[in-house]
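Whether sequence alone determines local backbone shape is best considered at the level of individual chains. When preparing material for the folding task, we compiled for one chain both its residues and its backbone structure tokens. The sequence in question and its structure tokens are set out directly beneath this paragraph.
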Amino acid sequence: MAKYSKNIYEQMVLAAKKAYPNECCGILVGKKSEQSETEVTEIREAENQFQGQKAVHFKIDPLYLYHLEQELDPRGLEIVGIYHSHPDCPAILSKEDEKYMVPGLEYVIMSVQNGEVVDVKSYKKAMPPLNRNN
């Protein structure tokens, strides 16, 4: 599970409350240690660009991610995860979340009920084993 400060937590909660009744989404920025521990040092809010029901889906512009990576690299930082909210739903992975998870990245999901964040959970998909035949 990623480590993040109370300030980072409060920023994610504020983004979830602001976006309600739609899903918020954003990027977790930080560092990974050699032991695969993740430290989140900042977040970047992202616009939910899903075309349709934003209350149950989110989409982040891939170009935004590309430009963010370009900005972070010289600072020794990287994208370490994604956060988003589930308005009026539990903080559990949806089938869509599971389908699009990138191995090694942290996924923070916030359950928002009536505009208030009531639960926060973090998930991470394991990295696939390396193919040593190549």
